[in-house]
Amino acid sequence: MSLIKDSKEIDLIRKSSKIVGDVLKHLKSFIRVGISTAELDKIAEAFILERDAYPAFKGYKVKHNKFPACLCISINEEVVHGIPSDKRYLKDGDIVSIDVGVKKNGYFGDGAFTFEVGEVTDKKKKLIKITEESLYKGIEKAIEGNTINDISCAVQNYVEGSGFSVVRELVGHGIGKNLHEEPAVPNFYSPANTMKLSRGMTLAIEPMVNYGSFSVYTKDDGWTVVTSDGEASAHFEHTILITDGKPEILTI
Fold first, then answer.
1. In the chain, domain spans
2. Residue 38 CB: number of other CB atoms within 10 A?
3. Sign of the Cα pseudo-torsion (196, 198, 203, 207, in order)
4. CATH class belonging to 7-249
5. I want to staple 94 with a disulfide (CB 3.0 to 4.6 A). Which of 7, 117, 148, 229 is the partner?
């Protein structure tokens, strides 16, 4: 599988990614105290299907474990991969990250946004702000001739310089005909991440930032990743295209 996408493939990834961005914008008006995470999932799935696309996470398989929903909805100390439920309701003061993938015409887009619910503490507000800003710090470095580590270090330096930590166990990724492709795009420095970026690459960059320790674990449901210390976590993600100049954000 080529890491470099041709113009036809880029156009198809752009269309899928546009739906991802539109889903997240659409959901913003539904984020309120008292709504269930299952209801948010239904709203998103209907929105995607109306656009002749398919929710990429639904049925996504890891070993024998299939993800049962359209969205990953993760609240407070949940980092990623939270499963929507008709028994889980948003509460005042929550922060909720919503991660969505879309497949259309055989190609994928992927994105995430962390929302505030009601009156959120200054502590959580700062976590969200730094996480989102770190995403754009990483994107700024996603230019032809730079390496994956340039993206990784930009995210890590900004996050840790602000007093927070980046999750190590989960990383961003290439995207295209598959939801997850090479290269891996960590949010921290690794001596192995020396791959150079070339125009035509499509990447999903996604900082996952914890208020406390970077340590996480997976709950018994086999999906939901939570912080080990119970502190809050935030998550932002864009699918981007490496060009011969400034990177193009596709999930807007």
1. 7-249
2. 18
3. positive
4. alpha beta
5. 117
